[in-house]
Amino acid sequence: MGALGLGLLLAATLIFGFLYRAKRGRVHPAKPLTGEAVVNPLDLSPLTVELGSRGSFIQFSSAFCTPCRATRLLLEGVAATNPGFIHHDIDAEAHLELVRRLHILSTPTTIILDRNGVEVGRASGAPKRDDIERVVASLR
Amino acid sequence: MEIDIRGPRFGAALTLAVLAIAFFTGSVWVLALQTVVFALGASRGPHRSPYGIFFAKVVKPRISATKETEDSRAPQFAQAVGLVFGLIGLVGGFSAIAPLFYVATGFALAAAFLNAVFGLCLGCEMYLIIKRFSRTKATVEA
């Protein structure tokens, strides 16, 4: 393919890498999938999870995913230092039906619920600490 | 097994170099060499592939002690994804379907680049997507 082809491929990959890194781990506000506003508690059945009095972090992990560890450490720490928050770590492979229903494509994915269990945001990839702290501050 | 996370990343840098040569020269044999490395990494684990052994024997004694480890099954899975792309590229190369050779080699090259430069494991990212897909089929059959 020659030098031009190789150069173009590497340049495109570099741009993709920067965009991906910027996007990965950002907490995105909950978007309604059905067109209706997000007002109902997120259906996590068949799981029943205990909700925090301020909010909950629902983390989906797989057994040997490297960034899942950093995510677990971060969210456990945030939950421990912010009363009213609970962190749940769920094995995505054991709940594939739920994973599909919630449109989860990769691990770790973290869904943030308010005290009523309504989704307020989600992040795929290890969440950025600043984003998590902003969401924590917004939940009363 | 827990391995130094720098091992697979070092391996990705070597993979990037080898695949860049294959892509630049259009050499099927260079791709074949990398595909053998993928196969060894996928079957024996990344720390027992040629690049992993080179990292353990030559690089690791010269750098600082291990700070961060990861489960070797994550990069091992990524090596299997690399193997699939390598094999597709070889089919293209040996049957003289040039676009197939370049697209497959290009994807593997891009994934190695992202791992070496950004520490992003694209093969690992595909794990859940593949799981979701495979289990869907199983449910339909059952």
Automatic annotation (TrEMBL), chain A:
Where the record annotates domain Thioredoxin, the positions are: 22-140
Write down the SUPFAM superfamilies for this protein, in alphabetical order.
Answer: Thioredoxin-like
Recorded hits in InterPro entries, A to Z, give: Thioredoxin-like_sf, Thioredoxin_domain
Pfam families this protein is in? Thioredoxin
Its name, as the record gives it, is Unannotated protein
Species of origin: freshwater metagenome
Organism taxonomic ancestry = unclassified sequences, metagenomes, ecological metagenomes
From TrEMBL, chain B:
Tell me the Pfam families matching this sequence.
DUF4395
Assigned keywords, A-Z: Membrane, Transmembrane, Transmembrane helix
Name all DUF4395 domain ranges: 3-132
Q: Which residues cross the membrane?
A: 12-40, 77-101, 107-130
InterPro entries tied to this protein: DUF4395
Q: What is this protein called?
A: Unannotated protein
